[in-house]
Amino acid sequence: MRARVEPSELPLVITEKVKGAQRLMAVGPEAKQLGLAVGMTLADSRARIPDLWVEEMDTRADANLLDRIAEDSDRFSPVVMIDAPDGLLLDITGCEHIFGGEANLRRIFSIRLRRVGFHVRTVIASGADTARALARFGRIAIVPPGEETKAVRALPIAALGLPDADRLAIARAGLKTIGMLADRPSLPFAARFGEAMMLRLRRLQGFAHPPLEARREIPMLWVERRFPEPIGRVEDVENVLFELGQEACTQLGERREGGRVFEASLFRADGAVRRLVIETGRPMRDAATLLRLFRERLDALADPIDPGFGFDLIRLSIPHTDALDALQPGLDGHAVEVDEVADLADRLTVRFGENRVLRFLPVNTRNPDRAARPVPASFNPLTSDVWPAPEDEEPPLRPSQVFDPPQLIRITMVEVPDGPPRKFLWRRREHIVSRAEGPERIAPEWWLKPHDPTRDYYRIEDAEGSRFWLFRAGPYTQATPQPDWFVHGVFT
Amino acid sequence: MTKQDLETLRREVSRLERGSSAAPSDRFSTGSAQMDAALQGGLNRGALHEIFAAQTADEPSAAGFGVMLAIRASAKRPVVWVRQDFVGVEMGEIYAPGINELGLSPDRLILVRARDGPAVLRAGEEAARCPPLGAVIIEPWGAPKVLDLVASRRLALAAARSNVPLFMVRAGAQPEPSAALTRWRIRAAPSTPLEADAPGHPAFNVELLRDRAGAAGRNWIVEWDRDSRVFKDRIREVVPSLSGGMVPVPAGESPDEGARRAI
Q: What is the reported pLDDT for A4?
């Protein structure tokens, strides 16, 4: 009998089904020492090492984990890119001085990840491709500017990331390293393998830089505070946000710009990042207003921010800035008032959400269901449509409140088949019709809803003075001797 | 705190609450000569006004009456309407073309859809603190626990400070003590028919249940004249608690002309 062994003490391999066979996709250090390697089949590995801890590959979990690490890495630079499946690229231009130089930044970054149990390789270089290749295939940690070409010489051809066929072809030609390839005249290679390969080589050597696709939008402006002792009290967080707001607004003022979106990132010491976004209807740069909006946002959070062991970095970033000239309050009292109302709409939006603070835009249509388009109050559409002035001397022809969907009613008495009802039952009450006007025939928009019947609308008043907007769905015909009636809305 | 301080404070509070020292310009007329006379010139701007429906079927009229008062009070200024979701489910959702036809252009309407009673109060108070607004309408459903005397006093104070009138339409609720300056009960009234017996302009039986600054318990039948944006008296003041089915005076006999001149 075998002693029970905890799986964690066994050599770990991660497998995935490739072309019908379970193959190793990753091997733990112990497994590696025992001679297992990526690409072997699980059956072969089991034949060699019977006791294995086998786990299925979970690509999504890997991606999620990488994403969380990327989120935390945001603290080192706002420009973080995912280099799937297992890499991150950070643009640290201008960030290194905060950490006391490149070497220190690299050390702090690596320690942060190693402390939680990751194996990390970090390389700093002037080009993203250079750094990426060196991290995967090389031994150098920091490439001094201008020495990229030299640094990548010893790398294997695989570092180019070419398709397998091309890589094999180059290997058959006897070229084993990037250096060997670079020493040859480039034209024949370009002819054989395409310009793309030459571009890869040049990027690797730091001559050309690919456009970087940041995981998150790179803000136009950001300010941040780091704390040697993490802070956790809400008041402290608010104070910091206010100071950062002042700083950002001063910068915006110098640039004669304003922001419409402001994002506060609260970095917890243990790696979790909480982001609070506020949006305003117009560009602004007033620190006090900003703080008030953030307070609203903090107040309105369904789950209060959990500081854990505290935040050690708070950043305020403005993804976009818009032109905003110096404010001249008082010159035009009206403009100030409009601003105040817009501020109110912003505050309400931050608290209750965009879909709960609305304005109505007119829609030029005959379809009563679509005659008004609700939009967020902070949304400033470019529209020339205006609400039509009601026709003089007419009573309101449209109800002030409508039911969506219209509510089915029962007609208890009609006078003539094609006319308005005399009595109807709605919400368990019988209404005796004393006045009626109609029908107003509204055909469905056949290009939207081809099967809806034509509606004949009536304005109805009952004996007690309640006014309704009723419609009959479709005409009286032989096939439909009793078409349905609905109450669509109520008049005041 | 000395007794004198307390006295001053009391007076200050009662002034804010009652708004009795409000200047004439701080009132807005309803357009109805009879109503304005009873209200000593009109309704107070910086105050809370409560509007109830006589019956469930009269809720649309109560909300409409609130909108019309807001139109009277706001001139061309923006109006914020805070509405609890359930009111829309029960009474129908606000229909902008219809609001437009009451005389309030949706261009100057901001609608806040509030999930529950506390949200209605929060948004309403926040809005009532914004002086450039012409009026604020709030519509909680029923009698939420949070809407006690203290809460209504807060609303009244916010309105008094900013001079923005606050109309609280109480769908599905019964009157109870509050800090409202006036309280109204609205019942739909049969309209004056148009040609071919078509339903006419909105008409209400309006009952002033309470007026902190004057006499209450009065009753009128008014019509809303959308073109001039005024209430018009339809007949002389009537005895309170009429049943709904009263016979309207024919259109020709209503004192339209007098009301028009009073604008």
A: 47
Same domain, A317 and A226: yes
- CB under 8 Å to A334, separation ≥6 — which residues? none
* Residues A98, A226 contacting (CB under 8 angstroms): yes
> Does one domain contain both A363 and A415?
no
Write out the two tokens for A226.
Answer: 């780091």
Residue A416 pLDDT grade (very low, low, confident, very high; cuts 50, 70, 90):
confident
pLDDT of residue B92 exceeding 90, the answer is yes
Answer yes or no: is pLDDT of A462 > 90: yes
Give the nearest chain A residue to B202 (CA atoms).
A492
Mutate to test the interface with B, among A428, A488, A492 (most CBs of B within 10 A): A492
More confident residue, A11 or B223: B223
| A96 is a domain residue | yes
In this prediction, the answer to ipTM > 0.95 reads no
A432 touches chain B (CB under 8 A): no
Overall domain count for chain A: 5
Nearest to B119 among A352, A404, A491 (CB): A352
How many residue pairs bridge chain A and chain B with CB atoms within 8 Å of each other?
201
Domain ranges across chain B: 25-261
Q: Which of A341, A388, A390 sits opposite B78 (nearest CB)?
A: A341
- Angstroms from A387 CA to nearest CA on chain B: 7
- pLDDT tier for residue B78 given thresholds of 50, 70 and 90: very high
C-alpha distances out from residue A222 to A77, A252, A318, Å: 11, 11, 6
B187 contact A CB<8A:
yes
Containing domain of residue A451, as a range?
Answer: 401-491
**CA-to-CA distance for A152 and A131, rounded, in angstroms?**
9
Residue where a domain stops, chosen among A308, A323, A338: A323
Q: Is the same domain home to A28 and A83?
A: no
pLDDT in tens, A9-63: 788 899 998 888 889 988 888 888 888 888 899 999 989 888 888 889 998 999 9
CB-nearest to B123 from A352, A388, A466 is: A352
H/E element, A416: none
Which residues of A fall within a CB distance of 8 Å from B128? none
Of B78, B107, B202, the CB nearest to A491: B202
Place of tokens 């969380």: A68
Structure tokens at A380: 């400033």
Tell whether A372 and A406 lie within a shared domain.
no
Do A179 and A239 lie in one domain? The reply is no
| Span A107-130, pLDDT tens digits | 999 998 988 888 899 999 988 889
Residue A123: DSSP 8-state = -
Q: Is residue A459 part of a domain?
A: yes
* Residue A251 belongs to some domain of the structure: yes
Check CB contact under 8 Å for A348 and B114.
Answer: no
- Fold exhibited by the domain B25-261: Rossmann fold (3.40.50)
Q: What's the mean pLDDT when you consider all of chain A?
A: 86
Mean pLDDT of all residues in chain B?
Answer: 85
**8 Å CB contact of A401 and B227:** no
List, as one string, the DSSP characters of B137-160. EEE-BS--TT-SHHHHHHHHHHHH
- Check whether B256 has a pLDDT greater than 60: no
